[in-house]
Amino acid sequence: MKKRIYMTSTKWRYFLTELPLLLVLAIALYYNGRMTTVVRLYPMIVVFCGLILFDFLYFFRLVRFSYEDVRTVGRYSSRDKVLLVKDKTLVLTVLPHHKLRVEVIGCDEGTPTLAFIKDEDAQPFCQLRCKAVGGKASVLRLLSFYKIEGIDTAALFAQPPYSLTTPMGTLTASTVNERREIRLTFAVSFDTDGTVIEDDEPTER
Question: Is the pLDDT assigned to residue 38 strictly greater than 60?
Answer without folding.
Answer: yes
